[in-house]
């Protein structure tokens, strides 16, 4: 049998997929960063990254800010202990500010762009979108990039109210 | 050596006939097959046979030996090859046992079949124009097999050869109707409600007659409200039936169009990429979108209108003949004229519509070509030139559109006039009869009302001719695509092969244009796990080797073996799933980065996606994107740089853990630092895996186990980097051109 390096082999050897029970995450107030305790090793200045923020939002990579290298992968952060999860989510929520649109009041079209008047889970918002090119449908999830590269998310198109759906039809 | 059996001949000769419909096939008792021109008989050829000799095949040429257009025959028997003129006078005869090799010499505008005999002499057998080049290529292979010159199974040469079928099994309308059969229940409801509303439509004129003759002139006041209520009820039920009818028919047509588009898409996807040599992408898109839309009218309204009109015509005819037979005969006068008009229109309209839609397809093809190439257009400041091209195509559309409009105007206004004149004549004659007291006013009013209902379906039928013609023409265009068969497809006895990785090209010749060879007699062997670099000047045939290995095309001659199995015997899916390829210009789809990587392995886990991206040096730039791996790539990967696209394509290729990895200029659009990084990663991933690297940048391939140098369709050198440098051939020349600086002459 010929030895062959495969992606599976790479996953087993190089990706540190970590059991959340082995992980402790602390919030370092002094430099607004996370500190990771993993198997007795302490990693400071750790940055959480969501590689799949829409399709798998609980999947996290923890990366060293200083070396720029991935430290470990946590496939599901919900299994972390309460305190670690809280610390992690605090930083994640800052890093990934993606308001979820819960209602669309109105979408108007003025020449080159659409003006969206929406209600999000973070409050009401008025923003501009440069046409359909900046609206992405991933199944029932819709991502909207506004003209200033802010992101808005519609988690489930089907769950929008009838009026919001009608307004959204103007742009998708 | 494998001797051909009769089944092999059968298949071979069957395939020969497939190319040329002007030949008929005759089965003989000996179970061999014989090709002949229609006017030739088997017994004619028997005259040239020697005792005990069996006729196997005959190929007719279009050139005489002197190079004049005319007939000559290449006759193949089980003992010899005979060339005769049109009168079957034997010009040349060669015994099969004397033949050492057979070949075709290609010339300009014609070619010649020659055999080399075992004594070393060469015999020119027959000349033919290039139109028959393929046919005589088949003859060559038949001779080769008869003389057992090559260990080849005949079937392999001809599998999957296909062309657009010349005839359709069913007419276009029947073909379209097949798509509504799964929804026949709803279709029946739609049609029945339509027919029911026709019968309801017969009532109001009768109520009108009652109103005039009985209520108004007969002074029966008590009947007034009953008649009015009956009229209102009739209209209400009719409207309700209309709603049911519209919904059912729309549903059926939308579902049928959906099925039609999906079926067409799947059918097109079953072809090899060379279908784009025949049909440009825009033209295929036009068939799936525009032509199917044109069929929509027929499915949603045309069919129902047709049946409604026929039923309506029949029922109203009965009513008017009961009401007033003499006037009914007058009402029939315009019908022969209408029939003649429709017949003439049908005759003229078919090609007018074909022509118009082909012009639309031209516009689609141009747009599909130019819009994705927008940056190229801009960078070459060719906006005006492209605009002119588009204007030209759109002008053709206008011309074609006006041509069909003119055709419509030649017929329909005239036919409309004929019908109006018919009504006027009835008023004229009927008016005299009312004045003369032989007809009541109510009967005339009801009759006129029925006559308008009589002419209405006739006019509907006449008006339907034009859209029916459009739908039928669109149906033909859809049918022509659906009747094509993929040239490359799985053989009935193809197998799933777990590939280990050995590759053999055995005397492979191939050309994209018939017999304009891009590869000529290419033979090489790659061992499992070997890393091979294929290098050479541009246009030498490097990428073609890969396309043949992926079985996007089949070789014209020779064969390709993987692990000793001819790739034509391996199931296409099995073959392609185990070959990972990163091409020069990778195509990404308008989906997320994760889904683009997952394209190589649909059930890949998030870890596998990340690992593949890391190996391809793509992970770091991906996680910098706002949505990471969930970031959309844009149409054709428009939201990513060339290097980013290339790295995602590499991740896509390696995620499926392919047994054979092909990198066709895969790192050509990344900078040297990134290339170095990818190279290291690929070194690891390619360990133990057969890897073919095609590169212009020779530094990319110099560490390969062996290098194959291809030039002008032939292999000119094989060896390691060091061996080839020592050889001081083409590779050394290319290397020196890239890496050795020319000494600078310094003048004092």
Which characteristics define this entry?
heterodimer, A: 172 residues, alpha+beta, 2 domains, 5-stranded antiparallel beta sheet, 3-stranded antiparallel beta sheet, 3 helices, 17% helix, B: 748 residues, PH-domain like, ABC transporter transmembrane region fold, Rossmann fold, 6-stranded mixed beta sheet, 4-stranded antiparallel beta sheet, 24 helices, 19 strands, extended
What does this structure look like?
The complex is a heterodimer of chains A (172) and B (748). In chain A, strand 4 and strand 5 (70-74) form a beta hairpin. Chain A is 17% helix and 40% strand. Chain A has 2 domains: 7-95, no CATH class; 101-168, no CATH class. Chain A has helices spanning 7-14, 82-95, 162-168, and strands spanning 23-28, 33-38, 41-49, 60-64, 70-74, 101-110, 113-120, 123-129, 135-138, 141-145, 151-154. Chain B has 748 residues and is an alpha+beta fold. In chain B, strands 15-16-17-12-18-19 form a 6-stranded mixed sheet. The longest helix of chain B is centred in the middle third of the chain and has 53 residues, at 383-435. The radius of gyration of chain B is 36 Å and the shape is extended. The chains are: A alpha+beta (172), B alpha+beta (748). Chain A binds chain B through residues 2-8, 10-11, 14-15, 17, 49-56, 59, 61, 63, 68, 70, 73, 75, 133, 136, 138, 143, 149, 151, and chain B through 500-501, 528-529, 592, 594, 605-608, 610-612, 614-615, 619-620, 622-623, 626-630, 632, 634, 654-655, 657, 684-689.
